[in-house]
Amino acid sequence: MPLVALGTFLIGxxxxxxxxxxFGWALYAxxxxxxxxxxxxxxxxxxxxxxxxxxxxxxxxGFRIAVLYRxxxxxxLARKILTALxxxxxxxxxxxxxxxxGEVDG
Length: 106
Description:
0% strand
């Protein structure tokens, strides 16, 4: 997986220098998501982003990255991502319940 991440990073770096290829930053984001299980700061940022995301897009992307890790037979890293995403979803649901209870009481 680090080789895939290195490849997306290099392609993204090349794409940034060409103004007609505006997807360099997107490839940097893909690189960060692929490396999230390996690097704790990226994993924390990803989970923070998942908690802030109300639409659920970050969780969908996380599940796709977990599928990619399962495909590459790195089930330990896939499990780590899925566990963290489920914890962030649980925290989001708890926060929604607290907000709903506060609205009913207030």
